[in-house]
Amino acid sequence: MAEAHQAVAFQFTITPEGIDLQLSYQALNQIYLSGVRSWKKRVSRIRNRVIKGVYPASPSSWLFVVIAILATMYMRSDPSMGLIAKIQQHLPLILFSPYLCPTMLSALVFSTLLWFSLILALRFCLKLLLSYHQWIFEQHGRISNTTKVWVTLLRLLSSRKPLLYSYQTSLPHLPVPAIKDTLSRYLESVRPLLTDPKFKRMTELANQFESNLGNRLQRYLKLKALWATNYVSDWWEEYIYLRSRSPIMVNSNYYGMDFLYVTPTPVQAARAGNTITALLLYRRKVNREELKPVRLHVHPSCERMFNTTRTPGTETDVLQHWQDSEFVAVYHKGRYFRLWVYRAGRLLSPREIEYQVQRILDDPSPPQPGEEKLGALTAGDRIPWSQMRKQYFSSGVNKRSLDAIERAAFFVTLDNEEQGMRGEDPAGNLDRYAKSLLHGKCYDRWFDKSFSIVIYKNGKSGLNAEHSWADAPTVAHLWEYTLATDAFQLGYTEDGHCKGEVDRSLPHPQRLLWDIPSEVQAQVHSSLAVAQALADDVDCHVFPFSEFGKGRIKKLRISPDAFIQIGLQLAYYRDRGGFCLTYEASMTRLFREGRTETVRSCSNESCAFVKALEGGEVLIHFLILCLFKLASERHQNLYRMAMTGAGIDRHLFCLYVVSKYLGVESPFLKEVLSEPWRLSTSQTPVQQIELFDLKNHPDYISLGGGFGPVADDGYGVSYIIVGEDMINFHVSSKYSCSETVSKTSVTFISV
After folding, report:
1. Which residues are catalytic?
2. pTM of the prediction?
3. For residue 5, pLDDT beyond 50
4. Under a CB-based contact definition with an 8 Å cutoff, are residues 229 and 593 in contact?
5. With bands split at pLDDT 50, 70 and 90, how would you rate the model's confidence at 4?
6. Higher pLDDT, 310 or 88
7. Does domain 247-371+395-514 have CATH number 3.30.559.70?
8. Which UniProt keywords apply (predicted)?
9. Maximum distance among all alpha carbons in the chain?
10. Does the chain have fewer CB atoms within 10 Å around its N or its C terminus?
C-alpha cells in the first residue's frame, strides 16, 4: 500500500560492495515534525500543571517573595525572626559555592517555603469561599450583604486568569447528608404518589431503616467521604453505567441535533471537513486548558472527551483513554477507514479534510465479508460483545483495525440518508431525524466511542454520545462550540465547500482490514436482532414550541425551568390521569468531581396546583396563581438543594451500595431503588450564548438533543430553552406500551 511505503524512513541492503543505505528525507522530516508536536504538547502539559499547582498565585509570585525577603535583609532586618539562620545551620556544606553565600541560599530556601505557605493559605481561603452556597437560595435582585462581600472576595482572590481546571483542587468535597434529613425529604417526595396506607407503610420502613441498619451504613459512607474525592461519582459511574449488561444504544447513549432551520452547506464532505476541524480545535483548547471556567459553576469539560472508548467486559465495562490521537475513524457504506487529520505535526485545513472525506465517499470498494454490520456488536448486549472481542479481536488484523477505531479521536459516520426538518412532512421528518441519531441502522454507529459524529448526505449533522464518561452538559458545551465554529468562524465558499487550500499529495485514507469468521458474523446477526427490536420500539417526537419562551415566563417572575417542569406534571396528569415519580437531572459541579443529582419534580405543591387547575371547581383565579407560585418556589428550592449536596437519590444509592458490600438486605432501600421513573426529564443548557448572535442570525437556533425512555411505560423528556421565544422538546416512549404516545403527550403541554 502507498501509506506503508511512505511510512518507511530508511532502507538498507547488504551488497558485495557493502551496505547500501537509502534515506527518505521526506519521511524523516515527517517523523521529526510529529515528534516536535508531541514534545510541545508535553511541555504544555507540564507548564499547565505548574500553573494549576500554584493557583490562585502565579509562578512569577515566587520571584516577588524572594526579592521582598532579600530587600528586607538588605535593610538589616530579619523578616524570618531567626529562621533563616537556623536553615543555614542545617544546610549541607556541599550546597555552598563562591557565587552563592550561605545567607543568600538560606534566604532563598526560606522565601520558597514562605511562598508555598502563602499558596496553601490562599487555596484554603478559596476553598472556603467556594464552599459558600447561600447565594443560590437568594431571590433575584435581593442579594444579601454577605453574598456581596463573598462576590468581592472571590473576584479578588481569583482575579488572575484561571486555566480550565484551576479551581478543581479548591472545590469542596461533596458532603454526606444526615440520614434523618434524607429520609424526611424522601418521604415528602413520595407523599403525593402514595395512598394513606401505603405512605404509612413506607414511613414505618424508613423509621426501621434509620433506627437499625441506616446508621451503620452511614458510618461506612462517611468513612469513604473522608478519603475519596467524591463519595458518589466512582460508584455511580461503575454501577449505573459500566456494570449494565444490557445494550447501551437507546438505554444509555443520547443524541444532539443540528440547527433547526439552517444547514450551512449541502455538501456532505464539506460539512464533515468543518465539523471535524471544529472538534479538533476544541480538543486543542481542552488540552491547553484554554477554555474559560465559570467561577460559580466550574466548567464541565472532561479530559476523557476525546481518544476514549468504552470496552466491553463480562462483568463490567472499562473506559479506556489515550493521551492523543492524530486520526479519526470513519464509516461509510459498510466500510471502515482511518483518516489522518495531522501531517508532520500540522492539523489539516478544513478544505484538506473535505478532500480526504470526498475520497472516502468516492471509494467504490465493497465491504469485506462481515464488515458492513460489524458495529451491531456495540449496539447489542455487552457480554456477547465482550466474548467476541476477547476471542476474535485480540490479535492479528482484527486487533489492529479495532485499535484504530478505539484509539481514534472520535468516530464519524458518513450517512447515506437525508435528514432534518424538510419536505412535505417537516414534523415527521424531525421525528425520523431524532431516531436516526439515537440508533441509526443499529450498525452504522460505534456506540462504544465517547461520541460519534453523523454527517448526512444533505449536509445535516448530529452526534451520538456514550453516557458513562460524562454527562450531557459536557457534550452540549462541545457541540455548541462545534456548531458555532463551523457556521460563523470557519464558514464556506459560495459553492458550499470549505475554505483554504489543498495539498493533493496527501496519502489516501487508510482502509481498515478485517478477517471476520462465521462465528462472529453469527453473533453480529444476533446482536443486530436485539438492537433492531429495541430501536423499532422507540417512539420519538421533536416539538419546537414557539408560542412563547423564557422572555414571557421571566416577566411573570417565574423560573423558566420550574415553569416547564410544572407544565410537564400537568401534561402527564392529562395524559395518564395521575402523577408519577419524576426525575430531573441537576448538576453538582459546585463540588469536586461532581456529576448529577436528582430533582424529584413531582411535589405536593405541583400536584396541588394541577389538581386545582383540572378539578373543574370554580376557584378564584388568584388562588390558582398562588398555588402555581408555591409550586414554582418549591421546585426552585428542590433544584437548589440538589445542586448544593442536599439531594436524596445519590445518598440512598450509596447507602444501598454499602449494604451490598456488607452483604446485608434492606427492605426499605430495595423498594426505593426499584421504583420506576416514569417521567425522566432533563434540560439541555445553553452555556455559550456569546457564540450565537440570534439577533442578526435568528435562524441559527439549536434543536438540542434527547434520549430514550427510562421506564417501559414512561416518557423521556429533554428540552432546551433557546433565546427568548422558543423551547424545543424531545419526547421518547415505547410503542410496546399502549398507554404512552410521544406525540400526544407533547400536545398536552401546549394545551
Report:
1. 467
2. 0.89
3. no
4. yes
5. very low
6. 310
7. yes
8. Acyltransferase, Fatty acid metabolism, Lipid metabolism, Membrane, Mitochondrion, Transferase, Transmembrane, Transmembrane helix, Transport
9. 109
10. C
